[in-house]
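Hi R.,

As promised on Friday, here is the backbone we talked about, encoded as structure tokens. Could you run it through your design pipeline when you get a chance and send me back a sequence?
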């Protein structure tokens, strides 16, 4: 009897999985054949997620379809293949796709309930409240904080050059951006440039270092969100969550007690905490709770230090590989500084070639290789007979698009001139999306680009970079990393110029 029951369950499971895997075939959508249990994520522990979707994109692109089908485990996902359709999803028909589909659990894991994961009206209202922090006027007010940290960074790198050391640039750049963000988000001197074991740096590392099982748990939680929520799955490390909660609590208490105002991100969050209560029936955002404030500060810190340091480190690696481009970048810096007389806010934003270098780094090595969207209501795909169902997923394969020779001839070549105004204007606007696009584009885009410009300007003005034998060639990308990262780090030699 038990054996019969077991066989029945196995048979039912087999037919259920087979039915799931016929999802795209039934809708006449081209797809890549999945295999149980990973679907099209086979090899996730050996190959970066961005490379897996790149493989699927390459196989389906020749079909000429707007999108193709793939599977995360047993769940169907629509993979965007056409840039006009990408624009529909991210901009034109945004009302169908306003949620990221990222897993968060406000009760079990409150620090994950941040703007990146928020959905619906709550996201819309908080986004509107936080946007003033990232205007060009506010960026200009925070600029002196960044240059003060950059001066310390220069001294730190000078010390390394004087000692003739080869430098793991990703680590040093992460310490630079940690100190910048810690100061701007928390008003705290993190001191990670002078002390690699500083708490903020250690906790930032810990938050982003995932074991293979931890990475798999994250992917599974995104794929089976309702089940993960019901089980109370938490993704954050409790030690990291407690550290940031306490840091935010201490900062708020100190500022409110001493009436400190710094015109930074934390100031705005405190104002939102102390906002007037609103009618419960209103769809507007009421005062932020302490947990909500901590979550916003946490994601600003994490996203701000990691993505910018990643972009800068890959940029320096490519400029070390291409010394003629490095000299061109250095000339751009020196000519602009000669015109302005100092490293002013205006001068840094006038360094067009440096911006090109950063953009080409973001193209070739986008920190976030894929962007997910949740379908919030049935969506008839224009020009097709297919309707995407509510709660299904759509994926924009950023890495794949950035490496598509249709948009970027010889995509493995590092060429900052791709971002000269004439070339950039000739491309489809969705061909370059390192920060996403539309109403949910990265809110900290301006801030991230500003600190990247400042960091690179200080480094390239004062040092020449060459490749180290410690860095693998070609680069090996870590499989179990959320943000694109090189295995073994990015080691460079540096020579002091002045």
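Update: got your reply. Pasting your designed sequence below so it's all in one thread:
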């Amino acid at each position: 009897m038990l054996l019969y029951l077991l066989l029945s369950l196995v048979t039912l499971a087999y037919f259920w999985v087979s039915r799931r895997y016929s999802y795209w075939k039934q809708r006449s959508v081209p797809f890549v054949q999945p295999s149980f249990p990973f679907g099209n994520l086979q090899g996730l522990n050996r190959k970066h997620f961005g490379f897996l979707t790149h493989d699927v994109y390459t196989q389906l692109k020749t079909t000429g379809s707007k999108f193709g089908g793939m599977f995360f485990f047993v769940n169907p996902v629509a993979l965007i293949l056409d840039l006009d359709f990408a624009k529909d999803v991210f901009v034109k028909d945004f009302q169908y796709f306003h949620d990221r589909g990222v897993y968060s659990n406000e009760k079990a894991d409150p620090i994950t309930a941040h703007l990146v994961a928020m959905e619906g009206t709550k996201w819309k209202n908080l986004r509107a409240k936080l946007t003033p922090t990232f205007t060009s006027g506010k960026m200009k007010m925070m600029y002196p904080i960044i240059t003060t940290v950059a001066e310390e960074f220069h001294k730190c790198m000078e010390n390394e050059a004087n000692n003739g050391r080869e430098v793991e640039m990703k680590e040093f750049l992460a310490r630079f951006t940690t100190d910048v963000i810690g100061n701007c988000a928390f008003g705290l001197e993190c001191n990670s440039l002078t002390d690699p074991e500083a708490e903020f740096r250690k906790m930032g590392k810990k938050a982003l270092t995932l074991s293979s099982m931890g990475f798999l748990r994250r992917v599974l939680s995104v794929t089976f969100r309702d089940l993960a929520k019901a089980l109370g799955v938490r993704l954050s490390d409790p030690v990291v969550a407690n550290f940031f909660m306490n840091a935010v609590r201490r900062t708020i208490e100190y500022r409110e007690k001493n009436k400190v105002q710094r015109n930074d991100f934390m100031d705005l969050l405190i104002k939102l905490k102390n906002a007037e209560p609103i009618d419960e029936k209103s769809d507007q955002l009421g005062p932020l709770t302490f947990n909500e404030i901590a979550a916003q500060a946490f994601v600003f810190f994490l996203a701000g230090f990691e993505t910018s340091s990643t972009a800068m480190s890959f940029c320096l690696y490519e400029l070390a590989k291409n010394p003629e481009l490095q000299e061109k970048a250095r000339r751009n810096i020196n000519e602009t500084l000669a015109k302005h007389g100092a490293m002013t806010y205006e001068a840094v934003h006038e360094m067009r070639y440096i911006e090109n270098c950063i953009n080409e780094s973001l193209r070739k090595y986008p920190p976030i290789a894929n962007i997910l969207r949740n379908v919030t209501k049935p969506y008839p795909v224009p020009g097709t007979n297919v309707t995407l169902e509510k709660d299904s997923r759509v994926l924009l394969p950023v890495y794949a698009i950035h490496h598509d020779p249709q948009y970027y001839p010889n995509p493995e070549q590092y060429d900052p001139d791709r971002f000269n105004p004439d070339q950039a204007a000739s491309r489809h606007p969705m061909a370059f999306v390192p920060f996403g696009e539309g109403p949910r584009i990265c809110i900290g885009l301006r801030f991230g680009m500003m600190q990247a410009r400042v960091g690179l300007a200080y480094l390239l003005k004062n040092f020449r970079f060459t490749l180290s034998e410690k860095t693998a060639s070609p680069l090996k990308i870590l499989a179990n990393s959320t943000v694109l990262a090189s295995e073994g780090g990015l080691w460079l030699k540096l020579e002091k110029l002045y």
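One thing I noticed while checking it: The radius of gyration is 24 Å.

Thanks again,
M.
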